[in-house]
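Cross-check.
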Amino acid sequence: MRAWLVAAVLLILPLIVYWPTVSHEYGFRDDYAHLREVRERPGWLTQLTSSNGRPVYGVVLEASLRDVYEVRGLEALRLASTVLLAFVGLLLWWHLRRSGWTETQAAALGAGVTLLPGAQIVVGWAIAWPIALGLVAAVAGFALVDRGLQQKGPASWAQVAVGSGLYFVAGLTYQTSALFAVMLLAAVLLVRDGTAARADAKWVITHIGALFGSLVAGFLVMNLVFTEGVVAEAARMAIEPHPFIKLLWFFRNPLPNSIALFALRDRFNTPFWFWLVVAAVLVIALLGLIYGARNWQQRMRWLFAALVLPFVAHSASLAASSQAIGYRTLLPLSGLFLVLFVFGVRAVIARFQWPRTAEAALLGMLIFGGALLARHNAFALIAEPQGYEWRLIQAAANRLRLSGDTRVYITRPTIDYRSTERIYADEFGSLSTDAQWAAVEMFGAAMRQRFPDGLPEGTTYTVTTSFSPPITSYDLVLDLRELKNQGERAPRQTTASQR
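Predicted model, tokenized:
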């Protein structure tokens, strides 16, 4: 009964946390363009994602968008992301409790992963839902490979082969999704019992070999596709030419952002408490080494997980010739530090012989705090501000009086006119309409929603955009700098006494 209750909580928690974001009417940047492209250019999305080595991503995304005709329909894709993340948490809990973690610890790890900033982006950005599908494939792949290594004979090889196949699919969906298996590798390695160092080394090499063998196989397949001219290769598929600069970038951006777990970085003014969280997580993780590693073999396991696996977890981004700092690429790395953090809590509880209720309370507070932050960040920094942009565009499109040649002018907002105080990368608190193409796509989506059967006969419209107001007359002028008067950055009214 207890196991069923835990499973139910893991499935329901993401739905409760993310429902305000899921059910809000909005799109996020590429969402609008893809709604059009999937109908006007069938197969183009698959070509686009294939150029980045992600053909599975494109296939499933196109299939899911064919039945979405309006912006409000993007809710279904966000719901799919949420459900898939819930299954990721469930699979993590199921495998970790069989691998030596207690019920409470495994549940905390499973729930925590669904609340990380990277998971918030996967839910908030409708077209990112295949990332969650790749995570499910990666976790299932690790579980099968791990079970195969515990057996002998044909059954063992079959499970390893199927698990590797799932890695292959996950890598061709989203490379960093496949690397999420590194979190499980660290979690199981840290609590392995009754094995010698040689057995540990063989186990790690087999797991990493299965994972990277599958990723290399996918890379070779895509190279063949590029060489044959089926799809043009994207620039980011090239190997990073400046490894030392890339390592510096890694230590300045992805690493601290991942160590902070649920705390968010800020593009302009990272709060001091962010660095306090980073320090606290590192201290508790180090306590795992001090109190949880009782012999040299266990110390070697912890050092391997803490000093080597971070580079493995972020290897796809380290290898690619781009410096993407978005949280959507950090799930493997953040998950790894979540494991080290919970292992530190586990070690402290065992060392000082605190009751299990104390452990449950500590981990419960961690998940509760993470849930509050995830609910707030996903809604207040993604859904709500993007909703402001969509409603302004939609209202303008609905009041437009069409004629034979209707001219529309949109004054786009710079980042200074955003509706949120906080912002990071192209995700939390960012704008869609600051990009010319996105503003045009949003207006087009609003017009298609107003005229689902097409524009009235004999009418057309053109959209011009700029960061500056128009210098000539237009049939409709929309100033999106008004966004600054929405949300967190809206001017606060003062009372008579204050005036």
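The two ends are 62 Å apart (CA to CA). Residues 356-399 form the longest helix (44 residues). Passed to J.P. for a second look.
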